[in-house]
């Protein structure tokens, strides 16, 4: 599956999860993936890992930290899955400028109501495996197929990411400097 096919799957699942009677995005995604072949599901997972890894950066993690009122490594995995769930346009916007999350309606509403963990979507991480299980009836089938699919690939190289410059997420001044609009939304005005 190429990148356009990947984003098409995400887009269709988003459309099926919209509205008051829509299902949860992860559920719609599993439904969509379960309609594909096993090889296509493996291709989807490959693209998912690529786009998920591409936003494994300190600046994106800082945005998750602000939105979530803190963010562990596990939670950051869920946040990146949630970015993918927002669709291609939002994903690419945030990948270029994480501070633009200050414009996302769910982030604005969450900040106003004092909610955190908006955008975080753990279930999206496991959609391919769940779809594979639905097709095969075997909970372990995905992992076995994935291992065969990735045989011969240098998995160590695939896990290396350039995270950019590390900085202190608990330093409000630094957060305001690096993510000014998102920090203002989540932390309030910068100290003078």
Can you describe what's shown?
The chain is mainly alpha-helical. It contains twelve helices and no strands. It is globular, with a radius of gyration of 18 Å.
What would a concise description of this structure say?
The protein is mostly helical and 192 residues long.
Question: How are the secondary structure elements laid out?
Answer:
Blueprint: H1 3-17, H2 25-34, H3 38-54, H4 58-68, H5 73-85, H6 88-96, H7 105-113, H8 127-136, H9 141-149, H10 155-158, H11 172-178, H12 180-187
Helix pairs in contact: 1-2, 1-3, 2-8, 3-5, 3-8, 11-12
Can you give keywords for this protein?
globular, single chain, mainly alpha, 64% helix, 192 residues, 12 helices, 0% strand
Mean pLDDT: 91
Estimated structural class: mainly alpha
Low-confidence stretches: none
User: How far apart lie the N and C ends?
Assistant: 51 Å
The rough form would be described as globular
Q: What gyration radius follows from the Cα positions, in whole Å?
A: 18 Å
Main β sheet profile: none
What kind of oligomer do you see?
A: single chain
Number of helices: 12
- Taken in chain order, the helices and strands follow as HHHHHHHHHHHH
The share of residues in helices is 55-70%
């Amino acid at each position: 599956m190429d990148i356009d096919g990947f984003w098409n799957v995400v887009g269709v699942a988003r459309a099926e999860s919209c509205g008051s009677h829509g299902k949860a995005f992860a559920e719609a995604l599993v439904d969509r993936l379960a309609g594909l072949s096993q090889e296509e599901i493996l291709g989807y997972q490959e693209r998912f890992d690529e786009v998920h890894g591409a936003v494994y950066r300190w600046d994106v993690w800082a945005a998750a930290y602000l939105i979530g009122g803190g963010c562990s490594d596990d939670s950051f995995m869920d946040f990146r899955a949630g970015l993918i769930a927002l669709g291609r346009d939002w994903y690419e916007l945030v990948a270029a400028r994480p501070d633009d999350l200050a414009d996302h309606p769910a982030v604005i509403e969450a900040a106003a109501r004092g909610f955190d963990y908006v955008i975080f979507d753990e279930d999206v991480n496991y959609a391919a495996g769940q779809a594979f299980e639905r097709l095969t009836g075997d909970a372990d089938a995905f992992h076995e197929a994935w291992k065969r699919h990735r045989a011969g690939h240098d998995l160590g190289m695939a896990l290396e990411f350039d995270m950019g410059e590390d900085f202190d997420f608990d330093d409000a001044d630094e957060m305001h400097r690096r993510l000014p609009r998102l920090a203002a939304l989540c932390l309030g005005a910068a100290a003078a």
